[in-house]
Amino acid sequence: MSLEFRHIAHAYGEVRALEDISFTAPAGEITCLLGASGCGKSTLLGLAAGLLRVQQGEVTLGDEVLADAQRSPPPEARPVGLVFQDGALFPHMTLAANVAFGLPKARRGEADSWLAKVGLAGMGARYPHELSGGQQQRAALARAMAPEPRVLLMDEPFASVDIVLRRKLRRECRILLREAGATVVLVTHDPAEALDIADRIAVMEGGRIIQFGTPQELHHAPATASVGAIFSGAQIISGTRGAEGLDTPFGLWPLESLIGALPDAPAFDLLVQADGLVPVADGRGCSVRDVHPMGPRDRVLLQGADGAAITVETALPVDPDKTYSVLPDPNSVRAFARS
Ligand SMILES: Nc1ncnc2c1ncn2[C@@H]1O[C@H](COP(=O)(O)OP(=O)(O)OP(=O)(O)O)[C@@H](O)[C@H]1O
């Protein structure tokens, strides 16, 4: 059952947190809300969960209105499971009791099998303080999934887990969620996390969605340079229209380096990939600040005369005592008009 947000706007007094948000989290898929702190992710989740009242617009589940300015059922009356950053297990209850808490009496015996699904087989008799942070978060996931809610809302669910375990846990979590067929909306500020787990991503900035799409769609046609920059190795540098191409702090770039045509504007945000750039030792003034060997390639940080920096990943030898310019590969740079 898909969860749809229609023309949602929200303010906390004078602070406008969300402006005309519309998107659909498709049934059985994982949709990530991705954006920097304060962009409105948790507010959006809170409106669907019933932690906040809808002020403007509506949230629908399938054909039914879940909440609008007139209707705001409490969280427990919504067919929605919630998982928060800290798991928030009941500390005085065993894991099995935690998981059984949301189940009808006849189904309470299922708690142990839900714990087994998240890799906590045989741990039902333990208390939350007897578990690691990652195990607590797994238990919280089991508790949220056990009642088989049609929708699962997750706010930074892996944030309190250490980085090594986080990746493992979110990949396992993705498989479990897909198998359960739940419609999931997951909040994160970490682009790598969104790309790792999401079927679709809503990229948010300043209370708005600037692009909604699959990771492939965002990669192939980013709406802004900042959307393109969520991918590893991507970076944004400044450029202006020159007589024979683009003037950048790292040299003159020919128009052939562009993907598509140059927008009609005097100044640009240029989206470039670190492994699509070639360092050229031509004494043009970019100094070498760092050369970091990373296996097959080196990661090189070059600094232009104006202080701007660019990262280049290259298999070519780079001499820290020389100065360079940087040349992009043909068809590798996306130019966005600078507002
Ligand atoms: N209770 C509140 N009272 C006043 N302003 C609030 C309140 N809650 C959130 N805000 C403001 O609303 C905006 C959106 O906040 P929200 O928590 O939804 O963002 P977020 O993207 O989830 O941020 P984070 O990643 O830091 O949790 C921010 O400007 C925030 O300061």
Automatic annotation (TrEMBL):
Give the molecular function GO annotations.
ATP binding
Q: Which keywords appear in this protein's UniProt record, sorted alphabetically?
A: ATP-binding, Cell membrane, Ion transport, Iron, Iron transport, Membrane, Nucleotide-binding, Transport
Full protein name: Iron(III) transport system ATP-binding protein
Q: Where is the ABC transporter domain?
A: 3-231
A Pfam family matched in the record: ABC_tran
Q: Which domain of life is it from?
A: Bacteria
